[in-house]
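Following up on my earlier thread - several people asked me to post the actual chain instead of describing it. Fair enough. Here it is, all 116 residues.
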Amino acid sequence: MPKLTVEGYGTFEVPADKRLVLAIEQDAKVDILHACGGNARCTTCRVEFIAGEPSRHTAAEQQVLAAKGVTGVRLSCQIVCDHDMTVRAISRLEGSGRPDPGRTPEQTITPPPVWV
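Reply from S.P.:
Thanks for posting it. Predicted structure:
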């Protein structure tokens, strides 16, 4: 099982291939945002990688980050936990003014990933 370390929250074993956004929320108990429901549209699930950043991206992740002019972050809804990683959850419900984090993302990456 891969180990996920979330800065300030600890290290957690997570099921292999679990979506990172779900691992952060469900396993690490961090109030990460996912306003679009994990569909690579809003960038609210963004994280900064401290270690173990995956080398591949989904086309959807690349497109939305480029369209919004966002750099230095990744979309946790477009990443699976298939190795040990350390992240900083930078987009949280606390302090956001939002009433909730958003609809719970599906178990698998949506839209269906095209890896680049």
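The two ends are 25 Å apart (CA to CA). That should answer part of your original question.
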